[in-house]
Prior knowledge:
The protein is an alpha/beta fold and 174 residues long.
Amino acid sequence: MTAPSDRPNPPLVVLGLDPGSRVTGYGLVRDDGGRLVFVDAGVISLGAADMAARLGRIHTELSALIVRHCPVEAALENVFVSRNTMSAIKLGQARGAAMAACAVAGLPVASYEPTVVKKAVVGVGRADKDQVAFMIARVLGVSGRLPADASDALAVAVCHLNERRMRRLTGCVK
């Protein structure tokens, strides 16, 4: 039997994040020799506290999650810019708090557009949240219903692992 460190591609855990100013979704997926395995997923519900307290909570809870699960890379969904400028700013701040937690832990961070994530998981860049949740449950063998933000975060992690695998196969390793 081959020791885990002797494998050509040892298991790799990726933290996927769907940052939000009210709810931040997280999902951890392990690539075990090309087989994607569900590790953990959930949400950080931030309530109506002032923005500084919400950002601090995102950083603190993600930092604890990183210590608990030891991911080696992180991937975030890019901010969807709508017509409401203040909402976009708050989303950007939440994303910054999440990125800071990853950076402090020494994790490389990749970013993906929502349409790229949806296309990677569902095959359609304009898929709705239910389609993403359905495919994530199928791909990762998750039973029961996950919160939408957790499914989205898992989708980001799966997208990143697929992108990583494609770069490795094509020789375009970053």
